[in-house]
Amino acid sequence: MALLLWLGSQLSSYLSNVSILAVFLTVFTLVLDFMKRRRKWSRYPPGPTSLPFIGTMLSVDFQNPHLSFNKLQKKFGNVFNLQNCWTNMVVLNGYKAVKEALVHRSEDFADRPYMPVYEQLGYGSKFPGIVMARYGHVWKELRRFTLSTLRNFGMGKKSLEERVKEEAGFLCSEISSEEGRPFDLRFLVNNAVCNVICTTIYGKRFDYGDETFKKLLHLFEEFLKEETGFLTQLLNVVPTLLHIPGLLQKVFRGQKEFMDFTDMFVHKHMETWNPAYTRDFTDEFLKEMKKGKAAEESGFNYNNLRLVTTDLFGAGTETTSTTLRWAVLYMILHPEIQSKVQAEIDKVIGRERSPTMEDQVSMPYTNAVIHEVQRCGDVVPIGVPHRTYRDTELQGFFIPKGTTIITNLSSVLKDETVWEKPNEFYPEHFLDTNGKFVKPEAFLPFSAGRRVCLGEQLARMELFIFFTTLLQKFTFVLPEDQPRPREDGHFAFISSPHPYLVRAIPR
């Protein structure tokens, strides 16, 4: 009996000590959380209640963040704050707020946030690439060089236009081989668009049946999927979790395999490089790397070569190919609009001559349809995150230096104060009363300001030539046994159409 009483007292003492320790740890972690949380700045934007440790992360659906932002906008206004654990964020909604930030205060919002997960791919302070590079000397030099080199290799010129026209011909040949049977055009369109940027970056195009290339495109899709979601956001704000054994291999497997492909392309170039003959963008970057220490300090090194070419591959492939898939989807959902586009093509170009960029000015309806596809498809709904370069003000709110900024581009492209029918496919958004093409200032699918998309000019050319060529050669219809495709997008940084089958009837 005495033994039982003694054991009971020991157990009671142990539980008491555990309880005291638990209380101490709870208080300690709450105090630590409080110390790391944002200060209460005056005139800081409002936002949802922030919980200990996780902040406001439960307020956002990371599978559809733009939809969450739209709901929060209705409650808190066009400028509101969020907090991912201890990371301060401000979300900008609507045309006026986004324009003020990116255009009128462009340098204040020109920085990029630090994202620890990118270090696993080689990105860092010395190797920033372009898209996620911090605002400063290295970014300016790499962007200047990239734009200049892309122009030298034809961006905005007839030479690149001819390349796009040629690839459009290859794409139509592949579609013709389907002989009117139902098929998924995703891979064919991806292949065509990717070939344009690959010939510029690597001096190489790939056959549509190339298995290695199919794997490359699949890995890039995985790359984008891995960038989104709750876990990736958590790892960015609590980077100590990156040290958990095996986690990186599981979470970022596709990204690492994609970077392995990039390394393979770069190594092959280095082995065959001849400084007397420049084949493509990669050769030009290698030439710049040989200019000594000044060039290296400006970011021209091997690791940046692999990262810059990866950035260009992403900027020049997925958004344009996804927009074209939205375009075909809208055409099968709106056959009357498809017929009007084809009538304009027949009138201006005919059915034999290949479309050129010079035709665009004479085709206001087709141009309006392409722009409405970009607006309604909403391919990059939340853009790439920005970061305040210095303390600044926006819409009467104070936003401190180092704050992560999310530009809800979806709210701009569907701003009810700008667009007559923001949630409908309505090409007349881009036509005046006389049927002439007009482009409202709120059309910002490529973002705006200092960080505007590098591939905007190329994308505009590809969208017009590919889309016009496809509708010149084919009428796209929904297979009889298929249900009506979904019109909402699937988000993985890029908002893509859900898979659908189509029949291409030769005209």
UniProtKB/TrEMBL annotation:
Q: Which cofactor does it need?
A: heme
Q: Which residues are listed for heme binding in this entry? A: C453
The listed locations are:
Membrane
Q: Name one GO biological process term.
A: xenobiotic metabolic process
Query: Is Oxidoreductase found in the keyword set?
Result: yes
Q: Does the keyword Metal-binding apply?
A: yes
Main location (coarse class): membrane
Where does the sequence pass through the membrane? 14-35
Concerning its family, UniProt says: Belongs to the cytochrome P450 family.
Q: What is this protein called?
A: Cytochrome P450 2D14
